[in-house]
Amino acid sequence: MKKLLLAALTLGAICASDQALAEGPGLMNPLVLKAHEAILAMELDEARKLLDAVPSRDPDGISERALLAVYEGDCDAAVALLERHGMTGPKSRAADLVDLARGCARVTAVTTVLRDEKRGFVIRFKDEDDLPLAPFLMDVAEQALVALDRDLQVRLPRPLRIDLVRDHFSLAAMTGLPEESAQTTGTVAIAKWGRVTMLSPRAMAHGYGWADTLMHELTHLAISRASHDRAPLWLQEGVAKYHEVRWRAPLPFDHQPSPDAVARLGFERGLGLPLDKLGPSIAMLPTAEQAMVAFAEVHSFLRYWLKENGKDALGPFLHSLATVSSQDGVDVVLKQRTGQDLAAWSQRWQASLASVSTALPPDLMPPLPPRPGEPPPPSAAPSPRALYRSARIADLLEERGHLLPAVDYARKSQTAAPHDPAARARLARPLRALGRHEEADPLVEQLDAVRAPHGLFLALHGALLRKKNDDSAAQQAFTRAVEQDPLRVEVACELVDAGQLPAEAPRAALCRAVRDRAP
Amino acid sequence: MPPEVDRLLLVWLRTLRPPTRRLLLASSLAALFGAARLARAGTDPGRAAALALLFLALFLLVLRSWQERRHARELRWVLRRVVGSADPEQGARAERALGLLERAKVDPTSGSAALAELHLTRQVSRVSIDSVRAAAERRARVLQGVALVAAALSLGLVGLDPVRILEGLDVLAARRGVAPLDLSYLHAIRVEVQPPDYLKEKPRQYVDEPKIRAPYGSVITVRGGPMHSGRRLVLTDGALEIPFIEDGAGRVAARWPLKESATLDVAARLGDVRILQGEPVRIESVPDAPPEVIVEGAPRTLKMLEVSEIPVLYRASDDHGLREISLVLRAGSREERRVLARLDGDTRQDQGGYQLRSSDPFLRAAYLPVEVTVEARDNDPLTGPKWGKSSPLLLLPPAIGEPEALRFEAMLRLRGALVDLLAASLQGPTQPSGAELKAWHGSWMTPIQGAADALLQEGGGMAPVPGRSAMFVQGQLKKIREVLEAEQRSPGAASRGASIQTLEGAVLAVDRVALALAGRDARAVSKRLARVALDAGDQLQRVRLGSQREVDGRARVDAAMQVLEPSGKALAKLGSLGADLGSIVANDLRRLRRALGARDLPHAELVAYDLGLRLLKANPSFAGGAGGVGEGDGHGKGSPADDAASGEGEGSESGEEEKSFDAEQQALQELLREHGGNLENTQQALRKAAENALQGDFLEEARKHAKSVRDAVQGLPRDEDDAASSAREQAEHAAQALERGDVRGAVEAMQAAERALAEGAQAAQRSLDPAERSMARGLEEARKDLGPERRWAEDALQQMKQAMRQGADLKEAAEREGRIAEKTRELLKGQGERGSLPEPVSERLSQAEQAMRDAVRAMKQGDGEAALEHQRKAQNLLDGTTPREDETPKETSNPRDDGTGRSPAQGPAAIPKAEDHQGPSEFRRRVSEGLKQGQTPALRDAIRRYAERLLK
C-alpha cells in the first residue's frame, strides 16, 4: 500500500513538476518538499531516493540536490550543480546556498579528511597539524552520542560529520554566519548543514573547551533531527547549554557562575530579552554581553522547566514538535503536554528568579555593563592592570630563566586572584622548577579551589595525582586538560620529562606533534 | 554484287572521293577554328559551345565514313545513287529487277532467281560507264565548291588573328582556370622594387632576374611592352591579380604591394581562364626584424639584499632603425617601463646604461621576483612597431616580513636585557657603595645599550623602528639611566625600590611596544602576502578559463610560492598574530602543493584564493566576545590572568610609561599648534600694517614701475638656457610682484636679475664671437635701466618697514609669545623630572624657548620683522620635537618603507592627512604662507624638508 502511495505520489509529482517547469515558478513538487524534510532530519539516503524521482530540470529539485550535496560534505558538487543549471545569480532562488557552497568549497579544497567507517565519523581538518586531535574528538563525540540517545532519545545518523576549521574566516565561509557576528560574540562552533563546524583549539593562544562545545553542537543536531528543525531558538540553545556537560562526569566549576544569577543580573541591567525575541541566532546578538545573558536565560529557563516537568519530559517534547507545522507549534505542544503555553512558563520562571541571589563572588561576577545612565557597580574583582603587571613580569622573568624573581611576581598575581587557575599555574610552575613542591602542590591540589577549567592547571593537578600514584585520577585530570588546551606542551605531554612521551599512543602522538611545532 | 555494278561503283567513287575529302578537311578546319573562337571567350557556355561544335564535326566525319562503307555494300543504294544518277529511268528498272530477284530468293514460287539475276545484270549493263562518270563529275564539282567555301571560311578565321585561335584552343584545354600552354604577352620585361618609405632606400630595377629579395611592404612594379593588343593582362601570384595599365609610353605596368613572398607572372585574363606568360619571378619578402638587445651579463639572477646598485648596460641594434629603448621592470602582473632613449628611427645601433638602485621604488614595492629587461622598439609603421627584448636580469626580493621579523627580534633582545637587569636588581648586592653600584650597573647597562643601538641603528636588512617608538624607547633608557644614577648617588632600599619600579615600567613598556609593533607588522605583512596568494589564484583562474597557458600560469604560481614560503616563516616570527597567520600560510601552502602535485588546478585555485582572502583579513583566527560565547558555547573563555598576561595587549589599557609619553607628546603638539597660531597673528599684524602703508597711490605707482621693469628687459631672449633669459625671467617676476604689492619679492627678484645681467655681460665680452660681444651692450643697457627701478623698490621697502614698525600692534602677540615660552619651560622642567624625552628633543625645546623669548624682545622693540624671524625659528624647532610619522600600520608594499623617514630617498611614505594632527596642518599653513611671502633663509630649510616629505 505504501509503495502504491509512493508511486502515485511520484507520478503526480513528475506531472506537476513538468507542468511547473513549463509554466515557470509555481507549486513546489511534493517530492521536493518531502526531500527537504528528510534533509533537515538528516535522512540523507531517503532524501536522495526522493530526489532521484524528481525531474532533473526542476529548479526546486536542483536546489535541494545542491543542499543535499552540502549536507554530504560535497560542496564542489553543490557548486557544480548550481552552476550547470545557471542558478548562481544573485536573484536566483539558490543565491544563499550558492554563496555558502562556494565558501565551503574554497575552505575544504584539498583538506585532510579522516574517515572512521567503523565508528562512523568523518572528520575534516582544515589544518592537517590538527590530525593528532582526531582520537580525542572521536572519543568525546562517541560519549556525547550516547548521552543524547539516553537523554533525548535521538540517534544521530552515521557517518557523523565534524569539520575542524582554523579560524573565524573559515567558520563563516562554512556555515554562512557573518564573520563579524562570529567575532562580536566570540562564536567557536556552529551546528548546521548536518554537521558540526568548530574552531580548532589552535585558533586561540590557550585553547578552549572544545569537548563541551562539541557536545553542545551535537545536541543542536539532535534537536534538529528530533523536531525536524522546528525547535525555536530558546529551546535549541537552552537544551544544548543544559546538555553540554552531560556527556562526562561533572566538575566543580561546571556552570559557574549560576545561569540563574546571570539571567537575573541581565534582566536587572536591561540586557535580558524575552525568550521568543532572541532573534535568529544568539551569535548574531549585537554584543557579547547580551549573548552571555541570552545563554544564561535559556539555560536557566530550561533548568526550571525540567525541574518542574522531570528530565524524561524533554525527549518526547522535542519529538512531538516534528508533528506540528504551525508557527506557534511550540505553544501548542507545550499546552498539550504541560497545560501551559510559553508565556505562562516564562512568567513562572521569571518569578522564580526573584529568589535567586545575585551576590556572586567578585571573580565570578559577569562583566555586564550598568543600565544606561547608571554608574557602574562597584567591583571587588582584582584590577586587570594589577594582574597584568605582575603576571607579565613573572612570565618574562621565567622565560629568561630568572625563576626566583618570577616566583615573587607570580605570587603577587596569585594573591590578587586566588581562584584564578592560570595565576595558580603560573606560580606553581616556577616553584616546581625550583624544587619547591611543598609550595607548588597545594596550589593545584583542589579542583574546587578554582572557578574555571584551565589546561595547565589541570595538567599540574594531574601530575600531582600521578606523583601520589593515583593514576586513574591523574589520567582523568590530563584528559580534562586536553579538553581545554591540547596544544600546550605541558598538557599534551602530561608534564613528563623532555625525552619521554605519555604512555597511551594517541597522547604520545599528540605530545610528539606539539613538541615538533613548539618554537 | 554483280560485276557490272562493281564497275560502275568504282567509276563513281574514283570520281567523287577527292573532292569529298577536300570538303571534309575544309569543314573540319572551319569547325576547329570556329570552336577556338567560341572557347576564347573563356566562359563556361563559350567553352561548352566550342566543344559541342568540335564533337559535331567529328561526328559528321565518322558518320560520313561509315555511310560510305555501308553504301558500298548495299546494291539497292548503288543502283539508286550511281545508276539512277547516270540514267534515272534505267536506274528505276534496275531497282525493280533487284526487287524481283529478292522476291525470287525468298519465294521460289514467284519465279526463278537465276532468271531474275540475269534480268538485273542486263538492266545494269545498259547503263554506260561514261554516263556514270559524267554524273559523278557533276556531283564532284558541287562538292568542290562547298569545300572551297569551307576552306575560305577557315582561312578567314585564322588570317584575322591566328594567336586568338591558339588562345582559344589553349583556353579550351584549360584546367582549373589555367591554360596549359604558356604564351608570351609582354616583351622587354623590367621589374622595379620600391622599398617602403620609412626605410629610406632607393628603388632597384631588375631585368631577367628569376629571384628577387625585397623588404616587406615594397611595391613591385612589373613593366613591359605588350605583344598583342586587346588583351587584359594581369600580374598574378596564382591567387591575386593586379591588372596592367598603360603607362602612357606605349608600355604597360602593374604594381604589386609585397607582403608575403610570392612568385609573380604575367598572364592574359580570358574570361575565367588565365594564360600565363611562363616567365615567373620569385619575389622573396624580407620582413623587418625586431631589434636585437643585449644586456651585459644577462641572463643573471641577483638577490636584492646583496646588491645596492645594479648596472644595466645595453646594446641595441635593428636592421632598419630604432625608435625607442626602454628599461622594463616586471613583477607579477605589475610592469613599469622607463624610456632610456628616444631615437629618430634612422639610428640602427645604440648603447647606454642605467644604474638601477635597490632603493628604487619599484624594487622596494616588489614582493615577487623582478624581471629587468631592456627593450627596443623599431620604426616599422607597416606591421606596427616591434619590440626586441634582452635576456632578463632576475632580481629576487627579500622575503616579505623578514625586515620586520629582524626588528621584532631586536626588540625582544632589548626587552630580554632589560628583564635581566630587573632580575639582577631584585637580587643585587646588598649595601653596596656608590662606586660599586656604578660598576655593577655599568655591567648590566652595556648589553642594554648594545641592544638599543642595534635596534635603533639602520641597516642589516632590518626594518627601522618608527620614530615615535624609537623616541619612546630612548626615553625609557634615559629614565633608567637617571634612576640608576640616583641610586648610585644615594644607595639604599628606597633608591633600589625606585629603580625596580622604573625598571618594571620600562620592561612592560618595551614589551608592549614590541608586541604592538609586531601585531601591526603582522597585519601589514599579511596583507602584502595576501596579494601574492591572490595573484597566484588569478593565474590559476586564467589557466582554467583558457586565457593563459598552463605552463605560464604554473610558473607564476611557483614564483608566488617561492615568495610565500619564506615570507610565511618570517610572518610567523611576528608575535602571536604573526605565529597564527604564519601557521595558516604554512598549512595552506601544503594544500596548494598537494593540489599542484596532483595537477588539480581548480582546487589549487580555490586554495590560493582561500589563503589570499584569509591573509587579506589579517585578523586573529579567533577574536572578540566576552570570553568566547558561541552558537551555544561559553567555553572559549580564558582565565583573566591568562588574558592579562598574554602580552599582546592591543586595545587594552596602556602602561603608565606610555601614558606619560603620550601626555608629553600631546603637550608638544599643543605647544606647536599654539605657537603656530601666534606666529600667524604676528604675520597678520605685519601684513595689515604693510597694507596700510601701500594704500591707493602706491599701488598705482608700483604698476608704472612694473611696466618700466618689463620694458627694460623686453629685448632679451626668452626660454633659453642662458643668463639673459634668466635675467628676463627674474625681471618679469619682479614686475608681477610689484603689481601685487610684494615689494620685498620685487626687490629680491630685481637684484637677481641684475646679477644675471652682469654675469651675462661679462661672459659676452669675453667671447670671440662679434655677435655675442654686441649682445653684451644690450645686457649692460638693460641692467642700467633696471637699476633705478630696483632702487625705487628698495626705498619703498624701507618706508614700508618703517610703517610696519610704527603701525603694527604686536603687544598682544608679545604677551602670548611670552606665555608660550613659559609653557615650554614648564614642559622642559616636567620632563626633566620624568626624564622620558630623549636628549635631542630636550635640546630643541630649550632652543625653541630661547627663540620665543628673542621674539618677545624684538616685538617689544617694535621690530616686527626680526620678531617674525625668531618666531619662525622657534616653530621649526618645535616641529622637530614631534615624531615625523605616526605609527599607523603602513600598507606600503615594502617592509622597509616603515622607517623613520631619515632618508628622503628611501621610498614612499604617507603624506600627512589634514585631520591627522595639528603639526602637519600647521606646517603646511606656514609653508604656504611662507611661499606667499617669499622665502626667508629660515623658512627655506623648512620648505626643503617639507618638499622632501612630499617627495617621499
How is this structure best described in words?
Chain A has helices at residues 2-23, 30-40, 44-52, 59-71, 75-84, 95-108, 134-152, 168-175, 179-185, 210-227, 233-243, 259-268, 288-309, 314-321, 329-338, 342-353, 384-399, 403-416, 421-433, 437-445, 455-467, 471-482, 489-492, 505-517; strands at residues 112-116, 121-125, 160-165, 189-192, 195-199. Chain A is mainly α and 519 residues long. Chain B is of the alpha+beta class. Chain B is elongated and about 185 Å long. The model of chain B is unreliable at 626-641, 643-653, 885-925, 927-940 and 947-952 (pLDDT under 50). Chains A and B meet through helix 6, helix 8, helix 9, strand 4 and helix 10 of A and helix 9, helix 12, helix 14, helix 15 and helix 16 of B.
Biggest pleated sheet of chain B: 6 strands, mixed
Mean pLDDT of chain B: 82
Structural class of chain B: alpha+beta
Name the overall outline of chain A: globular
How many H/I helical runs of chain A?
Answer: 24
Domain module tally of chain A: 3
The fraction of residues in strands of chain A falls at under 5%
Rounded radius of gyration of chain B (Å):
56 Å
Task: Please state the oligomeric state of the protein chains shown.
Answer: heterodimer
Class by SSE composition of chain A: mainly alpha
Largest sheet of chain A: 5 strands, mixed
Q: Name the helicity range of chain B.
A: 55-70%
| Widest beta sheet: strand line-up of chain A | 1-2-3-5-4
What is the CA-CA span between the terminal residues of chain B? 130 Å
The CATH topology label of the largest domain in chain A is Neutral Protease, domain 2
